[in-house]
Specification:
The protein has four helices and six strands; from the N terminus they run H-H-E-E-E-H-E-H-E-E. It is an alpha+beta fold.
Length: 147
Amino acid sequence: MNYSVEVLTEKDEKFSVFLKDKIKEFNNEQSLLHKESRKKGYVEPINIIVTDENNQWIGGITADVYWEWVEINVFWLSEQIRGKGLGTKLLNEAESVGKEKGAKNALLTTFEFQARSFYELSGYKVVGEIKDYPPGSSYYTMVKSLL
């Protein structure tokens, strides 16, 4: 087979979609769970929204439940409401809703300069670390059993 290789240094959305589709196709062939997770309604979202007295968003959590896991995708609180126990309450709520939806474990990622110690106090354990990402820091994958 003859082929050529081209290097582009700008985003090519059509090519990105092509590669993602091919990886999904391969994963679907290799893993029934991957294939099942692509069905509408399989991945169950969780959105926990914190609003102020003016009905403005000041924090919250987005998460997804699938494969018996709850994955915390984004968790942020405005500076003025940090350190008052609300973060722990929200994380516990996300885990509780995840358990109600069948999650046995929780998964999240965080940077060294973000909230590793907060998550450890909440029972999460580091299962992966990428050092010097970004330079001078680390990136962690953390999990917690919900059983």
